[in-house]
Amino acid sequence: xxxxxxxxxxxxxxxxAESLSWLRxxxxxxxxxxxxxxxLQLWGHVFAGGPRLPRLKTLMPRTAGLCFKxxxxxxxxxxxxxxxxxxxxxxxRYEPKAVGFTGLILEKFGLARRDxxxxxxxxxxxxxxxxxxxxxxxxxxxxxxxxISRLSIELAKRLHAEVRTEDFGGLPMRDQLARxxxxxxxxxxxxxxxxxxxxxxxxSGIIELTRSPTPMKxxxxxxxxxxxxxxxxxxxxxxxxxxxxxxxxxTFSQSAVVAAAMDMAKDIRSRHS
Length: 273
Known about the structure:
273 residues, alpha/beta, two-stranded antiparallel ribbon, 17% strand, globular, protein O-acetylglucosaminyltransferase activity
């Protein structure tokens, strides 16, 4: 999805547009950005190995132009676009530039990364369980409502936490980022919604439900979120899941999720003021 930010945002600096020479229209003066359709074509080729998007004829005619002050092109993480498919053992993987860049995205939406060191020690933690249903689970996997209800009650009790179940797929983008910025521990099935971990506070945690143990040596889609968590200076844990046919419900060990969350909560609270 392409997201145009509000008009009141300041335009890109001249040198930023100049540095993106492949987006610049040489026939026009100044750092003008080419229309939307070429960007879509570029996105498809770079991030998906070939054309994946239509020209959107209903949006703009071939002869028209559409310019943006700011635009986000969400890459396909599973295609390795974020360099997170590959895993290397050892070494310090924290990437301050990644933190700074995602902080700029928050700022453009009028948000800020929360500093958990300024949170009162006795304040309840904020846990977000990212859910999917048959409407938004494009990979055909979703939670049984009863199991999530039981898990939420257990997490709230054991962690002294406010637990919210949220389907980011049904929210506007700014609301999605705001929910992530408020979250101490994010849990969800391996998939696109977990990319929101990049907007969590530093030191927070992510619990990924996945089919295979992570990380895997070498290159694999399963490495995407554990790598990203390490980049962002966040805690990471995984819990294996199974898919139960014919309803495609995901089953997992709730006790394993609670145990992982309790370990993360202990570390997060140690950072509170």
